[in-house]
Amino acid sequence: MTQSPVLPVQDSYGRLSDGREVYRYSFTNSRNVTVRVINYGCVITDILVPDKDGNIDDINYEPNPRCFGSICGRVVNVISNGKFVLDGKEYSLPLTFSSLENESPKHAIHGGVKGFHLKLFESWIDGDKVKMKYVSPDGEEGFPGELTTIVSYQLTNQNELVTEYSATTTKPTIVNFTNHAYFNLQKHDYPNIDDHVLQISADKYTVNKDDDIFIPSGELRAVADTPFDFRKPVRLGDRLKEGPHGRGFFHNFCLGESGPLKQAAVLDHPPTGRRLEVLTTEPGMHLYTGCNTIPHTKGKYGAVYEPFCSVCLETQHYPDTPTHQDKFPSIVLRPGENFYSKTIFKFGLIPQ
Hints:
- This protein has strands at residues 9-15, 21-28, 34-38, 44-50, 56-58, 71-72, 78-79, 83-86, 89-92, 108-109, 122-126, 129-136, 147-155, 160-169, 173-174, 178-179, 182-183, 197-200, 204-208, 216-222, 234-235, 250-254, 262-269, 274-280, 284-288, 297-298, 304-305, 311-316, 332-333, 339-349.
- By secondary structure, the protein is mainly β.
- Strands 11-12-13-14-30-24-23-18-21 form a nine-stranded antiparallel beta sheet, with no helix packed on it.
- Strand 19 (204-208) and strand 20 form a beta hairpin.
- The relative contact order is 0.17.
């Protein structure tokens, strides 16, 4: 028997300081999974998933300036030195990020000072999907071309949270989107991710520089015989301190060509029995284990978030692609072309 689609419900989430209203959209499927999203930054505010005993907890983090739960764009992740060259012309972007604490920003990250995570999108319900649209003016945050972006969310009765991105441009530009959701499958306010078990479908990763530890060097290296080998399930508590400089992971994993939908990762939490599968059309997935989370960050419902208490599985093209155009898959979008990307977060229980 075919199940009815999961239809979203709209209500008001509040207003911005300028008076504009923010809308929330709630999905609840036949398996008691609930997802809520808002049209400010396309943020996923809540993901409520039953555990093996039927207990329902929120496994997603509160949105804040660290991009928790939001869409990042126009270009997610870093662009070294805040510069890129396209068709022979150099573009300069706002410098907002540094690898070192107490160092002046020297790189661009996540689309600029006011990237897509801080934009109010036009939003509407289209059948069983919520669609959100933002038109970024030519030159916004230094990027060329007027970029029209539509993000859609859908929850299925198979516990799949489906995110689709599409975009068109009026001038040649660069585009790379992700959702910066932070997960803790125990519950959103649990203090660590040690008991999570992660598997990543990648034979290679992008190596970061020794003297600028969050910036790719351009080298693609095999994961075999390194701390980056997650081809078999690995308990995160046993691996975090093996990451570079003992700071966990802020690295891109190479999944293969873009286009086909493929499994990127499986994240398990044996104590609760919860499982998260990640599928994507993207060629990369950025693993981030929260090393840069500001200590004592205030979260939702009075929670306090600390470093290493969540994990991000960010499907995207490789970070700093404009600097390594000869080695990394292209993120150039031209007039007349349609950008499209799809990622699925599938929630369930670990098979017994």
